[in-house]
Structure formats: C-alpha cells, structure tokens
Amino acid sequence: MKICMIGTGYVGLVSGACFADLGNSVWCVDKKSEKIDLLNNDQIPFFEPGLEELVNKNYASNRLKFTTDLKLAVRNSDIVFICVGTPTLKKSRSADLSHVFQAATEISKFINKFKIIVTKSTVPVTTGDKIEKLISKKKSKRLFEVVSNPEFLREGEAIRDFRFPDRIVVGSNNKKVTKKLETLYDPLIKKGAKFFSTNRRGAELIKYASNAFLATKISYINELANLCEKTGVNIEDVSLGIGLDKRIGSRFLRAGPAFGGSCFPKDTKAVTVTGDVFNTDLSIIKSVIKSNDKRRILLTNRVKKILSNKIKNKKIAFLGVTFKPNTDDMRQSSSLSMIPFLLKKGARISYYDPSGEKKEFSKLKNLLFHDNVSDACKNADLVIIHTEWEEFKALDFKKLYRKKKFKIYDMRNLYSVELMRKKGFSYYSIGR
Ligand SMILES: NC(=O)c1ccc[n+]([C@@H]2O[C@H](COP(=O)([O-])OP(=O)(O)OC[C@H]3O[C@@H](n4cnc5c(N)ncnc54)[C@H](O)[C@@H]3O)[C@@H](O)[C@H]2O)c1
C-alpha cells in the first residue's frame, strides 16, 4: 500500500520503517528539515535499538523515503497517518492538539483522491470528529475518512512491539475502511496480533484507558512500597505474590521512582480533562497523578535522609537519567526534578547515561557528564541508580570505591539487599 506518516518521531519513524519492511511504499514527512536531512544522510535523529538497520535497509530498497514536502507525500499516498506530538499544554492539564490540527489542515489542502486519514497520535475522545469537521470545510466528505488507530509501542522495545503487538485497535464508523486497515495489518495479524475494531471515539478512549490503567498499576505498587519500608515487608514478595493472580497479572508491578516518559504523565492528565468536559469525575486517575507527583518529592527527601540532611558539597553520582532504559527520551523523567533540586541544595552532581549527555541539563552548574560509570562514581558520597540500563546490573562496587566508599541508593532494586549488606555496602533500595 502507499502510505504517508506525518511526524517522524518515535512513533512515526518506527511505524513508517516497519510498514516499509512489510513491503509497503512509505513516505515519512516532518516539518523539521534538520530531522529529514539527517534521515536522508543515513542518520537516525534519536536512539531506538535496531532502528538504524531497519531504516537503512528499507531506505536502500526505496520503500522508505523522507521529505519535508507534505504535498508530495499526501498526493502519493492512499493512507495518511498523523503521528505528531500531543504534549501537555503549558499551564494546563489538556493535550495540546495544535500539531494535530495543523497537520489535518495541511492534509486537507492536498487531498486529490480518496484518502484514509488515520490518527496514530494519542488524542482525546472527539478529536477525530473535529478533524473530520475541519477537513470537510475544504474537501467533500466523499474524498476522505478519518480513522483512529492508536499506537501502543514502547520506546526501547518499539520495533518488537510494532511487529508483535498484543492487539491492533482501529476505530472507524466505515466498514470498508476498517477492512482496508485490517488488510494493511494482515502480516501482523497472521503472526498472532488480535485485530479489534470499534467506533472512532471508542478507539480514542481505549488508548487513554490503557495508559491510565498502567500508570495506576505503577503508582499502586509504589505506594505499597512505602508501606513495605515501614513494616519490614519486601515489596518484591508482594509484587510476586499478587502478580501470580491471573486477574491481576505480574507486569507493571515493579516499584521504583515516579513514572515519567512522553506518555503516562501527559495522558493521565489529558484524560481527566476529557472527564471534566463530559462531567465525569475520573477520581482514580486524578489521585494517580497526585500520588506520582508526591513520589518525586518523596524520593528526593529519601536522598536527603540517606545523606543525613547534609547535602551541601556532597558529591552525588546518577547512573542513568532517562525515564527508562534503551531510550534517549528525557521527557518527564524524574531526574529532571531531582537533579536541579539537589543542585540547589548545594550538591555537586555527576552523571552517566548510556544514551549520552543531555541537553536538558546543559545550563545547570555543578553538574558534570561522564562517559563511563567509574568516572561518574569517582569520589562520590552517594551513587543513585536511577535507570535500569543493562550495564548497571552487575557493577563491581568494590572496584568503583577506589579512594572513597560511597552509599548506594538503588531506585530500581537491581541488587539483593542481603548480598549487598553482607559485602558491607551501605545500600538502600525501594520498599525493601
Ligand atoms: N513515544 C511513544 O512511546 C509513544 C507511544 C505510543 C503513542 N505515542 C503518541 O504518538 C504521538 C507522537 O509521539 P512521538 O513520541 O513519536 O512524538 P515526537 O515528538 O517524537 O515526534 C513528533 C514529530 O512530529 C513532527 N511534527 C509536528 N507537527 C508536524 C506537522 N504539522 N507536519 C510534519 N511534522 C510534524 C515533529 O517535528 C516531530 O518530529 C503522540 O501523540 C504520543 O502520545 C507515543
């Protein structure tokens, strides 16, 4: 099929490359010319395991093309996916839909024959209705159909998630169009993905309901970890004990820092706005947002406590600053609030992240990036394991001590409490 992806970010580029790999002809469009230039010069604008090989392979075979020319891409496609960002509006809980509506306005100018316009971006219920209204001001309704096909891939596992999704959700009120999308996804359905179709608003809500539910699971186990710390119970036993119940399931029950990333924080907020608009109090999701905000403060206070409230001139090393491993995405990572707070209190901080130095920290004083664990930990008073990158899972702490012993705050429970204590380390973790 002839496809166009508008927005060449984590979702647009990964799905575009994967669609091309299935044999489709794909145009990837972005309004940022520097992104498109990089892609046309064999470079990937962000880190996602396996993506470079996949993009290069399909680019070489001419199935995958990159352009800033939306007209060219839309005119040459039958299916147009909107994959632009929907961040939180400044000083608000609402999703900023300006990129979505801008993309829809641009598409409307170039519809020359029947197009299926698919929102892959996460958008609040009724956004599809609004896009349809917007385009129908310019083009006859016979020339297009607006469909919702939310994306569920995870950064760091994006290619695998695209190829082996649990389910593909398509929301449309037009059976013929639903069938066309089912055909597009047929290679994945044949490998076991479930195809679920509903109406457009239903698909839009399924995405928010999924993310809010997963965020709830994380906050739930995080709060229980707080109770475990006070009662001498091991949170990992609790996670395993409840996860064995098939009705609950064992995933997303690992206690850690506040959840971050480009999806859960913004999507939980946005869905509560939808609730408000439709006069429905989504009180559970609202309390998850509060709980998560509190957690950022709670863990920072724990750091203070570990350092006996003496932060001034203490050297703290952060291992990992991204919100999760295998991505360079810093959006809403809890390190973004923790590090500036500790710096303000007089700490000197060094950090190492396998995905490299972060522009988000470039203006902060007393903060240094190192390109390896041992330099980052040199002379540290406290080492914080913030992100569970593979390379932090078997560290030789004795070797890292070098001149000075440091305390360890393992926010990902990567090590055994008993073993660490036996070895004489001053070791703290979450809910244990
Ligand atoms: N990142 C994820 O893990 C993930 C997973 C599932 C769903 N989503 C959703 O998918 C959407 C995209 O997320 P992302 O992380 O890929 O965003 P992103 O910020 O990485 O990429 C969006 C891209 O769209 C481009 N863009 C914006 N307006 C444009 C326009 N009018 N024309 C052309 N290009 C335009 C931007 O320049 C940017 O490169 C969001 O709604 C997000 O919630 C994201």
Helix content: 40-55%
Could you say which overall geometry the principal axes of the C-alpha atoms support?
A: globular
Provide the β-strand percentage band. Answer: 5-15%
Biggest β-sheet description: 6 strands, parallel
Strand order of the largest sheet: 3-2-1-4-5-6
The first-to-last residue Cα distance is 53 Å
Structural class computed from helices and strand pairing:
alpha/beta
Mean pLDDT: 97
- How many strands? 14
3D structure, described in words:
There is one protein chain. With 432 residues, the chain is an alpha/beta fold. 43% of the residues lie in helices and 14% in strands. The chain has 17 helices and 14 strands. It has helices at 10-21, 33-40, 51-60, 70-75, 98-109, 127-136, 158-163, 175-184, 186-190, 200-231, 235-243, 264-277, 283-306, 335-344, 373-377, 397-401, 417-422; strands at 2-6, 25-29, 64-67, 79-82, 115-119, 144-148, 167-171, 194-198, 315-319, 348-352, 367-369, 382-385, 407-410, 426-428. It has a six-stranded parallel β-sheet, sandwiched between helices. Helix 1 links the parallel strand 1 and strand 2 (25-29). Bound molecules: nicotinamide-adenine-dinucleotide. Nicotinamide-adenine-dinucleotide binds next to helix 1 and helix 5.
In brief:
The protein contains 17 helices and 14 strands. By secondary structure, the protein is of the alpha/beta class.
List its traits.
432 residues, alpha/beta, six-stranded parallel β-sheet, 17 helices, 14 strands, 43% helix, 14% strand, globular, binds nicotinamide-adenine-dinucleotide
